[in-house]
From TrEMBL:
<dbReference type="GO" id="GO:0030174">
    <property type="term" value="P:regulation of DNA-templated DNA replication initiation"/>
</dbReference>
<keyword id="KW-0853">WD repeat</keyword>
<feature type="repeat" description="WD">
    <location>
        <begin position="123"/>
        <end position="155"/>
    </location>
</feature>
<comment type="similarity">
    <text>Belongs to the WD repeat IPI3/WDR18 family.</text>
</comment>
<comment type="function">
    <text>Component of the RIX1 complex required for processing of ITS2 sequences from 35S pre-rRNA.</text>
</comment>
<keyword id="KW-0175">Coiled coil</keyword>
<dbReference type="GO" id="GO:0005656">
    <property type="term" value="C:nuclear pre-replicative complex"/>
</dbReference>
<keyword id="KW-0539">Nucleus</keyword>
<comment type="subunit">
    <text>Component of the RIX1 complex, composed of IPI1, RIX1/IPI2 and IPI3 in a 1:2:2 stoichiometry. The complex interacts (via RIX1) with MDN1 (via its hexameric AAA ATPase ring) and the pre-60S ribosome particles.</text>
</comment>
<dbReference type="InterPro" id="IPR001680">
    <property type="entry name" value="WD40_rpt"/>
</dbReference>
<dbReference type="GO" id="GO:0003682">
    <property type="term" value="F:chromatin binding"/>
</dbReference>
<dbReference type="GO" id="GO:0006364">
    <property type="term" value="P:rRNA processing"/>
</dbReference>
<keyword id="KW-0698">rRNA processing</keyword>
<dbReference type="GO" id="GO:0120330">
    <property type="term" value="C:rixosome complex"/>
</dbReference>
<dbReference type="Pfam" id="PF00400">
    <property type="entry name" value="WD40"/>
</dbReference>
<dbReference type="GO" id="GO:0006267">
    <property type="term" value="P:pre-replicative complex assembly involved in nuclear cell cycle DNA replication"/>
</dbReference>
<keyword id="KW-0677">Repeat</keyword>
Length: 512
């Protein structure tokens, strides 16, 4: 079951994707996009805009506990972006490994959530504010995007090791105005590895750029610009299809779809994000157009023009995709979340915040500034029901320290593990039920007819009706007799050789 979590400048709501259940988040004043993250244990962290504070909500509890603040985490300064790095080896640990936070001054904070230790406070990581943080390759690399128009990729080990002189691995500075969003490809690169993954960035300079992140022979990460898409309006938000088939982006004119596998004609489909074959470091450059009077798409593509399709009208702030990629969740500028079917472009449902604050100072506070869609267990969003125990619901995050950890001596690490469910006892009846379910795959349904054609069956039926002469019968008997005699000779030779072999084995055993 999917769950939609969204916030505005003065409210927050948690709604079920498949049902009408909804609850509000009290005292939620989210600072802006990318300032909300959900932990594996069901806790929701929301950075506040009016103070240096992170509100923690327990989304696994009853309706009363979901709405109230479960915990408050003071931090050194106000943050505008936040993300986590999960544990790689043990998925049963509910608290993630690292909490990443970016500030408006360009400082990057990294806490160890299980202890609360501040591992890194990288000042001037960006010249201006850090608007988004993400990780790739199972947390090995950290990616930050800032208002200074740069995308920086860091080595996670170097950031948490306590080194004073930390240098980024890659700096991408092709954009000329502040970064607005970036997304990572969800498919693997060459040879089913993370090398070759795509990084797509957007900016207020009305361009979308795609980079290929490859590893050199020495294991270092290298970024190469593949292509640039030029748009008429600045890009506000993006979301990538789960199979990297299409890129959806939003501007002041609405939401548009950019097919990454572009069909030129009925027989030709081009991978736009393929290898850079231009021979230059700038890659290919395309212009995005809504419609054209030209004859064919191939002619437009020869002029480096790509047709895009309008999905939704104006007044959008953020967009997200459903689990199957067929539903688009749109956060509007009026505080409404619209659920839209991509194929038909029809709105299925509109979700509004339960709490409407009428004394807001400006209309800008009413827009959706955080939007998240995640898959949860059905019991996790039912009012009054939960699959966690009381001790797990009362679990709290350690206090986040303000001073950087000096790494002298040991420190406490608080870890809570989930109870592993006991495997069900396997019986013969359950085994037969599984076999019956598997046999349904081979069951013929409806008008589907499955036939197995035996080669040579028609020839055999034809020869059976043909009369056989006496000479042919004599010839067949002679052939059968000769084959029988030859088989008898081979059998006698085999028996003689076996006896000789047995005699040699007996002699060898006697000599030993």
């Amino acid at each position: 079951m999917e769950e939609i979590i969204f916030t505005t400048g003065n409210s927050g709501s948690v709604s079920s994707f498949q049902s009408r259940e909804q609850s509000s988040l009290s005292q939620s004043n989210a600072v802006g996009p990318n300032a909300m993250v959900r932990l594996p244990n069901g806790s929701l962290l929301v950075a506040q805009s009016n103070k240096a504070l992170i509100n923690v909500y327990n989304l696994n509890g009853s309706n009363m506990k979901r709405e109230s603040i479960h915990q408050r985490l003071p931090i050194p300064e106000k943050i505008i972006s936040m993300n986590i790095v999960k544990h790689l080896n043990d998925s049963t640990i509910e608290l993630p490994y690292l909490l990443l936070c970016g500030t408006n001054s360009g400082t990057l904070y990294i806490w160890e959530l299980s202890s609360g230790c501040l591992l890194q406070a990288k000042q001037m990581a960006h010249y201006q504010g850090i608007i988004k943080i993400d990780s790739m390759d199972h947390g090995r690399y950290i990616i930050t995007g800032g208002k200074d128009g740069r995308i920086i990729i860091w080595d996670t080990v170097e950031l948490v090791s306590g080194n004073e002189d930390i240098k980024p691995l890659i700096i991408l500075h092709d954009h000329t105005l502040p970064i607005t969003d970036f997304v990572l490809s969800k498919t693997y690169g060459d040879y089913l590895s993370s090398s070759g993954s795509k990084l797509i960035t957007s900016s207020q300079d009305s361009t979308i750029r795609c980079y290929s992140l490859n590893k050199t022979q020495t294991g270092q990460l290298k970024g190469q610009l593949i292509c640039t898409f030029s748009n008429t309006k600045p890009i506000k938000t993006m979301v990538l299809d789960h199979a990297d088939r299409c890129l959806y982006y939003g501007t002041n004119d609405g939401v548009f779809s950019l097919p990454l596998f572009y069909r030129i004609d009925k027989q030709t489909i081009i991978d736009i994000l393929g290898t850079n074959n231009t021979g230059t470091s700038k890659g290919k450059i395309f212009t995005l157009i809504k419609e054209s009077n030209d004859t064919t798409r191939s002619k437009l593509y020869s002029m480096s023009q790509i047709l895009i399709e309008s999905i939704y009208g104006t007044g959008i702030e953020l967009i997200e995709l459903s689990m199957d990629g067929s539903i688009l969740i749109i956060g509007g500028s009026e505080g409404t979340v619209s659920i839209l079917e991509i194929y038909s472009k029809q709105i299925i449902r509109n979700i509004q915040s339960i709490i409407n604050v009428s004394d807001s100072s400006s209309d800008a506070n009413n827009g959706v500034n955080n939007l998240m869609v995640q898959v949860v267990e059905p019991n996790a969003i039912k009012v009054g029901e939960t699959h966690h125990t009381n001790t797990q619901r009362d679990w709290k995050i350690p206090t986040l320290q303000r001073a950087v950890y000096d790494r002298k001596g040991a420190h406490d690490v608080w870890v809570q593990l989930n109870d592993r469910p006991n495997p069900e006892e396997q019986t013969f009846e359950k085994y037969m039920d599984e076999i019956a379910d598997q046999s349904k795959v081979f069951t013929q349904l409806g008008s589907v007819i499955s036939e197995v054609k035996v080669t040579g069956s028609e020839d055999s039926t034809d020869t059976s009706t043909t009369p056989v002469t006496a000479a042919e019968i004599v010839q067949l008997k002679a052939n059968l007799k000769s084959l029988t005699e030859a088989y008898g000779e081979l059998r006698n030779m085999h028996e003689q050789l076996f006896q000789e072999h047995q005699t040699l084995l007996d002699q060898n055993n006697a000599s030993k």
